[in-house]
Amino acid sequence: MVVVLLHGLRRSARSMRSLERVISAAGFQTRAIDYPSHLHGIAALSEHVAERLDDLRQEPLIAVTHSLGGLILRQLTGRFDWRGAVMLAPPNRGSAAATRLGRYGWFRAIWGPAASEVASGGPWPLPPMPLRIVAGTRRVSAANPTSLLLPAFGVFGPGEAHDGTVAVAETEYAGAELVTVDATHTWIMNHPVAQASVLEFVRKVGAG
């Protein structure tokens, strides 16, 4: 069993390093994939990731993804032997933030074509099952600059649960288990409760 970690938009495999160490310390083999998230659309990024996983086509895999990484995974559902997945803050139902900010050239220049595709909400292929979604509820954090910007654009409604970037409702997927943690979008993968939830899922699926 190999646990594959996919980072989010404008991040790298380094952002998943703390979580990867937790999983490795539990005795699981890991593979953290880097991909040029801001340079291409989702389809092209998925092909890049598939090439990096080509030697694992015969291996049983568990995916652990952050944000955009969850949508990349959905493009690869039928191409590898996924036994389950944990998605951290995935925009499974699109992104109001990307929709609102996507009208500005500076946003498109910084975040790239994948961000515009995220705004659409798909349709995207089905994700691997079983699926656990871990969503954050820390609305504002200095560690997440986006959370400081979005209130000026009126992206989220009063009382709406979100992590400063993605609403909890936007992460949801029918048939998936939903876990919420007091974490901001940018660093949800480092939150101890999120890490414990990921590890519990990996152990359960890995034992099966």
Strand-helix topology:
Blueprint: E1 2-6, H1 17-25, E2 29-33, H2 42-52, E3 60-66, H3 68-75, E4 81-88, H4 96-101, H5 105-111, H6 113-120, E5 131-136, H7 145-149, H8 168-171, E6 177-181, H9 192-207
Parallel strand pairs: 1-2, 1-3, 3-4, 4-5, 5-6
Helix pairs in contact: 2-3
In words, what does this structure look like?
The protein is built from nine helices and six strands; from the N terminus they run βαβαβαβαααβααβα. It has helices spanning 17-25, 42-52, 68-75, 96-101, 105-111, 113-120, 145-149, 168-171, 192-207; strands at 2-6, 29-33, 60-66, 81-88, 131-136, 177-181. The chain has a six-stranded parallel β-sheet, sandwiched between helices. Helix 2 (42-52) crosses helix 3 (68-75). The longest helix has 16 residues, at 192-207. The model has no long low-confidence stretch (mean pLDDT 94).
Quick structural overview:
The chain has 9 helices and 6 strands; from the N terminus they run βαβαβαβαααβααβα.
The biggest beta sheet is recorded as:
6 strands, parallel
State the distance separating the first and last CA atoms.
11 Å
Strand content: 15-25%
Q: Runs with pLDDT <50, length 5+?
A: none
Features:
single chain; 9 helices; alpha/beta; 6-stranded parallel sheet
